[in-house]
Design goal:
This protein is mainly alpha-helical and 297 residues long. The protein is built from 15 helices and 2 strands. Helices cover 52% and strands 1% of the residues.
Length: 297
């Protein structure tokens, strides 16, 4: 339950956010103390552009099936794509498997703790590398996602929206973190939670914010965003939807399917053909010698 208590006068903003998190945090399984860096890595990849409610059951299934990187690395790509299910952006599944292979081959099956080594893994960028180092290994790291950038934009810069990523993002969030290392680690997840639950994009719950008394945006009268309007991602009728429909057919099939089975997934032949070609190019689908289609072996 979200606390309605404002921060104490003079208390640094980072400390107030950590205190708020103590009672406001969601009970998410990848935050449990016994969770290792591999489990954190899997959760971070799954959570990219995907809501927590959709991720949690799939994450639990993956961790039960593939508790170590070597377990996933030994699994055929097609099975990994099938297990990814409806999380969306299925190339993430292949990249996560590639990362598991790299961890197994380069690091003896143990996810590295060094940010540079993490960034060298397939599909792992600045955010994910720092998140794993911080949440998986307890390192003091500035971890900046969309929610964090929005909190900083309002709290520090007085802006309604964060806009494009800036080189100063990491420095901005590092400056807010408590001096104590343990609390700084907790702050990294706490400020993310604040952005997800309270300082949300469309209808921020300022009355529940622990740092509302020093928020530059609120103190300025909560001015409207004066930049380009936020682009709303559509899904219906897009290539993303068509690709998902085609993959649904292949996930449900235990044997390779012919083109007619895929034709029934989408009426527009031109769009369907374009999307099938893109799936083949991405390595998410393969064609057999006799012209059938299947998930990669």
């Amino acid at each position: 339950m979200t606390s309605l208590t404002a921060s104490a006068p003079g208390e640094p903003a980072g400390e107030a956010i950590v205190d708020w998190y103590t009672t406001a945090a969601r009970d998410l399984p990848w935050r449990f103390p016994e969770v290792d860096a591999w489990a954190v890595l899997v959760s971070e990849v799954m959570l990219q552009q995907t809501p927590v409610a959709r991720v949690e059951p799939v994450w639990r299934e993956w961790m039960a099936r593939w508790p170590r990187p070597a377990d996933l690395a030994a699994t055929p790509p097609g099975e990994v794509i099938r297990a990814w299910g409806k999380l969306g952006y299925p190339r993430r599944a292949l990249r996560l498997r590639e990362a598991a292979v790299a961890v197994t081959e380069r690091h003896g099956g143990v996810v590295p703790s060094d940010v540079a080594a993490l960034e060298a893994l397939p599909g792992i960028g600045t955010y994910t590398a720092r998140a794993v180092a911080c949440f998986g290994y307890g390192q003091r790291q500035p971890v900046v996602d969309t929610n964090v950038r929005r909190v900083v934009a309002r709290l520090v810069h007085g802006q309604a929206e964060a806009g494009n990523a800036r080189a100063s993002d990491l420095a901005d969030i590092a400056a807010l973190a408590p001096e104590d290392d343990d609390r700084a680690v907790r702050f990294s997840v706490a400020v993310m939670e604040l952005g997800a639950l309270v300082c949300v994009a469309r209808t921020p719950r300022c009355g529940a914010c622990p740092v509302r008394d020093r928020c530059a945006w609120r103190l300025a009268g909560s001015p409207a965003h004066d930049g380009p309007p936020r682009r709303v991602q559509k899904f219906a009728g897009t290539d993303r939807q068509v690709r998902g429909r085609l993959l649904d057919v292949l996930r449900a099939a235990h044997e390779p399917v012919d083109a007619a089975a895929l034709d029934r997934a989408w009426d527009d032949a031109v769009q369907r053909s374009r999307c099938l070609d893109s799936l083949l190019g991405d390595g998410l689908v393969e064609q057999t010698a006799d012209g059938l289609f299947r998930l990669p072996a």
